[in-house]
Automatic annotation (TrEMBL):
Record's protein name: Phosphatase PAP2 family protein
Annotated PANTHER family: AT30094P (PTHR14969:SF13), SPHINGOSINE-1-PHOSPHATE PHOSPHOHYDROLASE (PTHR14969)
Domain Phosphatidic acid phosphatase type 2/haloperoxidase residues, every copy: 86-198
Keyword Transmembrane helix recorded: yes
Keyword Membrane: yes
CDD domains: PAP2_like_2 (cd03392)
Species per Swiss-Prot/TrEMBL record: Leuconostoc falkenbergense
Transmembrane segments: 12-32, 52-79, 86-104, 124-144, 156-177, 183-202
Keywords: Membrane, Transmembrane, Transmembrane helix
Pfam family, one: PAP2
Length: 213
């Protein structure tokens, strides 16, 4: 019981961070501006080598690439009869990362920073790329942990996917299409959503031996 209570505190913290940032952005609070300025100064050190790298990384989180990755993973899961996992990752990306992000963006209506290193349209808060990175690759981490039997395979896969979860949001600040507060808010609410969906789809299901039908 204590272990469950400790784990469930994390999504509450993530949600509190998201609410704090949302209120701060709406009120144009000074701490938001200070946080954004600090994050931009830390990340935005432009040169040709870094420009190429972060431009390539940020494209991985674009709608087209995310859709291709989601469809590819879903087809593989369906082929292996992992239907619950297919619904899990599809729900997270389409409903949580896609639909809910657009709803919140159109409520907050925060303009993006300028100028951009890559084309960008729409509102800024919260970052859709940050939400997609957490909900797409975070879902994949959970799925792989359920089905990979080798601990070293789990660790390698988790490290690679965590790298994308971290780098994609950072790239959005680097190319100056998002403020750091957009990124932190997107990741915070996405982690909360990922926890909720994991409980809904896999709560007390354990790790299957072969497949989950």
């Amino acid at each position: 019981m204590r272990k469950i209570q400790k784990i469930s505190i994390l999504p509450c913290i993530y949600l509190a961070v998201f609410i704090t940032l949302t209120v701060g952005v709406l009120l144009k609070a000074k701490f938001i501006q200070q946080f954004d300025n600090f994050g931009q100064q830390l990340i935005q050190h432009y040169d040709h080598k870094h420009n190429w790298f972060f431009t390539a990384i940020t494209s991985i989180g674009n709608v087209s690439w995310s859709a291709i990755i989601l469809i590819t993973i879903s087809l593989w899961l369906i082929y292996h009869h992992f239907y619950r996992e297919t619904l899990f990752i599809g729900f997270n990306v389409i409903v949580f990362a896609g639909l809910s992000n657009q709803i919140v963006k159109n409520i907050i209506t925060r303009p993006r920073p300028t100028p951009h290193l890559v084309p960008a349209s729409g509102f800024s808060f919260p970052s859709g790329h940050a939400m997609v990175s957490v909900l797409l690759y975070g879902s994949l981490i959970i799925i792989l942990h359920r089905h990979l039997k080798s601990n070293w395979q789990r660790r390698v896969a988790s490290c690679l996917l965590l790298g994308l979860i971290i780098l994609i949001p950072i790239s959005r600040v680097y190319v100056n299409v998002h403020y750091p507060s957009d990124i932190l808010a997107g990741m915070a609410i996405a982690y909360t959503m990922l926890y909720i969906s994991q409980q809904l789809f896999f709560n007390n299901k354990g790790v299957p031996d072969d497949s989950l039908k």
